[in-house]
Please model this.
Amino acid sequence: MRFYEFEAKQLLKKHRIPLVQSELAQTADEAQKLAADIGGPVILKPQAIAPGVAAASMREASDPAGAKAAAAELLGLDDGGRKPNGILVEARPTGEAVYSLSFTYDGTSKRPVVAAADMAGKIDDLGDTHPERIVRRHFSSLYPFSDYIAKELAKSLALEGNDLKRMTRIVSGLARLFLDYDLADLDVTSLVKLGDGNFVVLDVEADLEIEARHRQRPMLDELGFAKEDLRQVREPTEFELEGARIDEEDPRGIISPIAEFDGNIGLVIGAGGGSLTLTDAVRKHGGRPANYAAIGGNPSVDKARRLTKLVLTKPGVDKIAVMSNVVSNTRADLVARGVIKGITELGFEPADKILIFRVPGAWEADAAKILKKYGVEYCDRTVSISEAARRAVEKVG
Amino acid sequence: MAVIVHEDFQFIVQGITGREALNFTRECLQYGSKIIGGVTPGKGGREVYGVPVYDTVREITETQRVDGTIITVPLAFAPDAAYEAIDAGIKEVVIITEGIPRKDASAVVEYAALHGARVIGPNCLGVIVPDVCRFGSLGGPAVDCRKAFKPGVVGVMSRSGGMTTEICNALTLSGLGVSTAISIGGDPVIGSTYVDLIPLFEADEDTKAVVIYAEPGGTAEAELARWTQENNSRLPIVAFVAGRFMDEMPGMSFGHAGTVVNKKVDSPADKMRRMREAGISVAEEIGDIPNLVRERIGN
Model:
C-alpha cells in the first residue's frame, strides 16, 4: 500500500532523518502562502497514488504567484478517479552532490537489501542505465540492524570523513524504519548533500506491506490513514465494493481479488494462478472479460451463489463462464450448487446463462450430477483451460 | 529416486485440528503418506484419523524420526510454529499458511538456513512424488489426486498450488507423467525458488525435463534464466507465464500477494523474453506444455 509522500516524510521526520523544508497545502492559496514562507524557488508535488501520476506531475515555481498557479493546476489532476490529496510545497535545495537509496526484499537471497547510487533516480531504473554506479548490501530481518552495514555501504559509495558518518546515520535510520514499519519498498530517489555538508532527503516513495496493515494500525492511525483505505491504484467501483462485502460476510472460502472490466463475459473463476491463466485464455481467444472474480479456498454454496448473482446482474453481462484449474480443496459440487442457485433465484434457466462449467477435481462426479439435472454440460479435466475459454468466447458471440 | 520426499518419509502436521488440515490429513493418509503426529497447543492427547495430537513438536521428535512438517496454523502463529519445528531439528518445512508478511517470512527462511533446514512456501501446497509420498495438500481427495498425478519423467515447480495440479494433470493425460511436483508458493519472499530447487531435479535420475509455472512479480524467473545460461544443465525447461493481461494494469494485484507489476522485471513480457533468450521453451498455453516437453526430450 502506497503512502503519500507527505506521510512517508512524517515517518522519516519522526525517526530524525533530515528532510528538505516541506509543507502540505490543500488549496492554491495555501500553496502560495507556503511558498512565500519558504522563500525562493519551490517544488510542488501532487499527492497521488496512481502509478506515475505523482512523478510525472512535479512542478517548479520561482515565486509564490507561480506556486499558486501550479498548485491550482495540480489539484485538478485525475488520480485514478480521485483528486490529489493536497500538494507538497518544498524548498528546492541547491546541493553539490546527490544520491539515491532503495530498500526492498531480494526474492533470490530472501533477505532485505539496501542499494545506493551516487546519482538521483529510482534504483530499478538506474540498474538499466548505470549499473556500475549501484552498490548493495544485504541485511537481516531476523537480527537487529547493525550500523556497520550502513557504514560499509557508505564506504562503497567512496564517501569519507563526515560524509561517511552522516550517510551511515541516514542509512541506518532508514533501515530500522523499513523493518519496524513493515515496509515492502522504500525509495529515497533524491538525497541531496547541501553546501554546508549536511544531507537532506528531497524525494521519497514508501510502500507498506499490505499483509502487515493490521499490526501496523498504531502507525497508520497516527498518520490518519483510514482503516478501509487500501490505496488501490484507482477508486473501487460499486461492483468491487459489493464483491468485497460478499467476501467479508462469509469466512468460508475467499473471493479475492475482484475487479470490474468493461467486457461482456461474466467470469466466476478459480482463485490464484487459475484465475490469471483463465483471464489470459479468454482474452487470447478474443473474449472481453466483464470482470475478474476469483473464488477459491473451498467457498460455501452461499458465497458462490451471491457472487454468481453479482456477476450476472452486472450491466452488459448476459451469460457467465464458470471455470477453474483442477481443484484440490475447493469442492466442485459446492460451486455448482451455488451457481445454479444464484441463477434460478434471478428467475433464469441455468442452461441459458452458463456458457461453460469447467471445474474439474475434488467432488467432480457430484458436480456433474447436479449440472446434468439442469441440462448444463459439465466439462471434465480432458477439456483444457484454453479450450474451455475458447468455447465460452464462441458461445457469447 | 525422488525429490525432497521418499518412500519412508515421515512427517507431522502443525495445526492439525484446523478445518483444512483435517481434510488434507485424511487425504494424505488415504494416499499412503506417513503422518506420525500432529500438533495443536491445548489439544494434546487427542487423535485425528488415528494420528496422535501433541501440544509441542518436541514431544514427537524426542521419540521418533521426523523428516518434515506441514505448517498450517493461523497467520499470527506461523513464524513461531516454524521456529519450533526448526529448533526441534526438522529439516523439511512446508508452510501452507497464506498472508505472512515478508519480513517474517524472510526471518524464518534465514533462521532455517542457519540450521540446515529447508522451507517450501509460505502460501504453497507442498510436494508430491506420485504414488510414493504426498507431503501437503496437492491434488485434493486421494482419488482425485491419483487422477491428476501419475508417475513419470517431468519435474514441476509452480508459484500456484492450483496450477501445479492443472499442469500435472496435463502431463499425466499426455502420458509423460510427473517425477516430483513442488508448489513453491505465491508470496514475494518464499523459502525455495526455482534456482534453489532445480539442482535437486538435476540430481534426480527420474526427471528428464522441468516445467515451471510463473506469474507476474519478482525476480525468480530472471534468476532462473541466468542460472540456465551459467550452468550446463542436462534438463530442458519449459515455462508457462500467467497473468499477461496484467502488463496493461501496473500497480494492480491479482492472484497471489507476490503478483503485481511495479518494476520492469515484474512483467510477464520481460520474464518471457529473458527465459527465451536463455533457451527455456515458453508455452503459449497449458495444453502446449506436454508437446514442448516431448520436443525437448526427443520423445
